[in-house]
Every structure is written in C-alpha cells, then in structure tokens.
UniProtKB/TrEMBL annotation:
Domain ABC transmembrane type-1: 20-338
ATP-binding keyword on record: yes
Membrane topology type: Multi-pass membrane protein
PROSITE patterns in the record: ABC_TM1F (PS50929), ABC_TRANSPORTER_1 (PS00211), ABC_TRANSPORTER_2 (PS50893)
InterPro entries in the record: AAA+_ATPase, ABC1_TM_dom, ABC1_TM_sf, ABC_transporter-like_ATP-bd, ABC_transporter-like_CS, P-loop_NTPase, Type_1_exporter
Gene3D superfamilies in the record: ABC transporter type 1, transmembrane domain, P-loop containing nucleotide triphosphate hydrolases
Organism in which the protein naturally occurs: Hanstruepera neustonica
Gene Ontology molecular-function annotations: ABC-type oligopeptide transporter activity; ATP binding; ATP hydrolysis activity
Protein's name according to its UniProt entry: Antibiotic ABC transporter ATP-binding protein
UniProt-annotated location(s): Cell membrane
Amino acid sequence: MKKIIHQLLPFIKRFKGHVFLNIFFNLLYALFSSLAFVSLIPMLNVLFDKTTIVKEAPVWTGISGIKDYSQNLLNYKVSGFLENGNAQMALVIVIAIVISTFILKNLFGYFAMQHVMYLKNGVLTALRKDMYEKIIQLPLGFYSKRQKGDVMARILGDINEMQNSFFIVLELVVREPLTIIFSLILMFTISWELSLFVLCFIPLAGFMISRIGKSLKSTSLKAQQESGKLISIVEESLTGLKIVKSYNAESIFRNKFTRSADNILKLSNKIGLKNNLAGPVSEVLGIATIAVLLWYGGKLVLIDKVIEGTTFIAFMGLAYAILTPAKAISKASYRVKNGMAAADRVFEILHEENNLKDSPNAKDLDTFHDKISVENISFKYENDLVLKNFSIQVPKGKTIALVGQSGSGKSTIANLVTRFYDVNEGQIKIDGINIKDITKKSLRDLMGLVTQDSILFNDSIKNNILLGKPDASTEEIIDALKIANAWEFVKELPEGIETNVGDAGNNFSGGQKQRLSIARAVLKNPPIMILDEATSALDTESERLVQVALENMMKNRTSIVIAHRLSTIQNADEIVVMQRGEIVEQGTHNELLAKNGTYKRLVDMQSFD
C-alpha cells in the first residue's frame, strides 16, 4: 500500500489544490458530523424538560472555556423563553440549531466530494495519458513477448479497477478518520467509561476484517491477468475471423473463450464472497457494540444516575457516527486490495525501461547527403543470430534490393535501419553518423516505410494519408494519390478523400489499401524509402498497379527494397541475395543471372519467400 501511494504521489501533486480543499472541507464535515449529534441534546432537554435554567448571561473567559460558554449561552436563551411560558419558541431555537448543523455538515461534505472527484478523475486521466505515452514509446521488442490484449486490459480495465476500488481511499482517508476522531473527543467529554467500551471493539473489528481480506490481492491479480487473456482471445478472433470461419474453427475459439470466461467467473466469485463479508462482519460488530452500550449506558442512566438520559441518546448518536465510518473503512479495505493488484499492473508498464532511448548527445539529422552504411552488424531477437557480420552500402539515389528465403533476415534489416531494434554488434550509419547518435524522430523523418501489411486506421482516406505530413493541402494529397496510382478509384467514391476506410481499411481491396499506404509515404516525401515486401500479398492485377506506383515513388530516391517477387527488384541498382543472415551473392539482375547460382534458382522458382 505504501509503495502504491508513493508511486501515485507525482500524479496527486499535479492536483494539490484539490487535495488541500478536500482536506479543508472534510475537516469541517467531520466536525459538523459530530456536532450534529451533540446539537440534539438541547432539543431533547427542551422536549423532556431537562434544560438547566441559567438566569445570568455567561461571561467569555477565552477559547479554553468555549464549551461551557456555548452551553451556558444556549441554556440562558432557552431558559428565558421557558420561564416566560414560551416553550414553543425555545423548541424552535434548538431545532434551528439542529437543522443548521446538519445543513452545514452536508454542504461541506458536498464540497469535499466535489474536490475529491476532480482529484480522482484528474489523476486517472493523467495515468491513462502517461500510460498511453509509455505504450507508444516502448520499442517493438517489448510487445513481441506480450499479448496485445493484456496491455489493453491494463490501460482500460486495470485503471477502471483503480477508479472503482483503490481511489475510494481518497474519499475516505481524511473524512472518515476525522469523523471518528471528533466523535471520540466529544464522547470522552460526555462519558469516558462509555467511550472506552466503544474503543475496545474497533481493534477487534480491524483484526477480523484484515484476516478475511488477506488473500484478496493475489486473487484480484489472477482475475486481472485472466481478463487480459480474455481480451486477447477476442482481439485475435476478430482479427483472424476469416481464417476462423474458413477452417470451421469457431468451436476451438469458443472453447478457449469459455475456459477463460469461466476462470474469471470463479475468481470473481471468490473475490465477491470475501468483499461481501466486509459489510456483515462490521454490521455484527457494530450491533454488538450498540448492545453493550445500551446495557452499560442504561445502568449509568437508570441506576447510577451519573448521566442524563438525553445526553445518553446523543452519545448513542456519536457512537453510531463512529461505527458508520468504521464500517465504510472496513469495506474500502477489501476493495483497496483489488485496486492494489490493478495498480501493480499499471505501474509495471509505467516503470518499464525503454532500452531504445535517444542518447544524451543525440542530434537531429535534417538532410541526407551521401549514403547509408551497414557495417559488420550481428543481431538476434532472442537466442539465435538472425544476422551475422552483415555489411552493405546504400548510396544516395540508388535502389538496393534484398532477396532471399524466409528467415534469411531481410525484414530484420528494415527493422534495424529504422531503429525499431538496436544491433548487437557493428553499427549502422547515415552520412557517417551512427544512427544511435541521431534522435529517433529525425531519423524516422528521413524515412518512408511501406510494409507487406497495408496498415490503415479507422478514419478517412485524407486523415490516413496526412499521417506523413499533417499540414498538407488537399492538392498535395491528390497529387500523392495520383503518384500512388490511387486517385483513379478514390475520385469515384461518393465522399472522395473524406471516405472512411473502415476497420483496418477493410472497405477496400488489398491493392487499393496498398496504394493508399504508398500515397501516405509519397506525401511524406522522405529522401529514404524502405519497401518491406510491398507487393507480396497482392494478386497479379493489383501488383501491376502497385508496381507502377512504387516505380513512380522511387524515382530519384534512395530505396531499400525487401523483395518477394522478381518484378519488384529487377531494375534495382544492386541486388543482395541473403541466406541465414549472411550475403551469398551480390550484383545487378543480369550479373546474378549470369552467375547461375542462388539468385538464378530463386528466379526460376519465382518465389522470394
């Protein structure tokens, strides 16, 4: 708990004004909550004719005598009306005091809740923003070992769980303890014997509740992890729905979902059973306390006559004022266990170390003048090397193609040049500068990436293309679409460039999506273009249209082409043939064909997998 609070402090400090105001109004709320029950004593005294008659106005003797002064002043005023036979007016005065006290109590309570609401919602929004910022900053390697659904569950479900459970502490941490403290002070001024009876039961209640809730946090953590798994199953099912249906695999995914949902049900029931115990346990302990108070207090009133019956009724009200917040705190302690488990998962992401940060002396590189140098690099994702002592030069204005079978390391080069990953050995340089010494933003500003999977976002064509250049004009967008061979079909759409592409661009064919992706890269107009198997997923007709678009885009531009099909690379300035992370052949299309080696064999197979 202490650790979580410490981690939350930087977020809470952003809203310290609301913290101070919440404490201030809760202080007043707690004070008037206690005074509300004490204010019943004068009313009950008037009703039961127990008012102490005071005939002389009391004299103010200082702050230390405020209790006696207030009591005598009220009795003096009420006594005047009672002696004049105006008991009704005396009753109006004491009732007005009761009503005013309760109104002030609720008014201050309202103000306190307003400020804790601003604090709670502000902190949660700040957490969400920081978490999303962290999620998009973390390198791709972080997500290769995690389910997307689990990350989504943390930013959505776990933060909501913090709101619903852990953040209830912000509402209770000041108000309820202060209510208990003020009530106890007033109770001890009325009767220290009765007060000790109440105090005996509070530690007992706390002990019993803590014993019941001990294992709640670990159960909550398991439930939240299972929720992440469930979201992953849903995400995978929707993403691969065509495959699921075409293979009649609905039952397989239904069973996976059902097992996960049933696990969540069991864990949720386990958590619920323990949560539900908080109320009854504190209620039973409260009733036991009241029963003891009634027995012992009745003895003090009826037999020992050391306390007035009217005062005892007010004391019972104060005892209730202690038991209610004590019950709220005990319930909250259960819910906090859930929130702590959720907070652990949220802060695990927030504290995740980004191993691809810009170096302290990294500089911006605004232009590209000479060449890209890949010098003796070796790289592995986990255990086995994907690239071994690999070197190539990409001069400005030239097109270098990488070909080879699956697993040869072609796409890894694209990942390393764009610095999605860092090399294990060797270095990659642009114009003689190691890319580790260049800011990632300026490095990627120099590059345009077109991947095999045409990644489009559920937005308009216009906004998808503007990702490359947010301030581009409509004319520039249309020019980019023309170069990408996409304007032909976009202009026929009823809403033109304002047409929504649908989820993952599913309103369009594969070839159309790829041409829109190319238009996005064209609009960005970077000096370096990286094409990662940009036509491999297309049919022949779509490939022809996309190939024309690619050729248009690659004119007078430095390009690294990761090739799947011969048509993409036969005009390249240099073709690099790769096998198991190493270069086996290098040269132009005709030179490599003449060698009658690996490249010739791949051409004959017409497959660069």
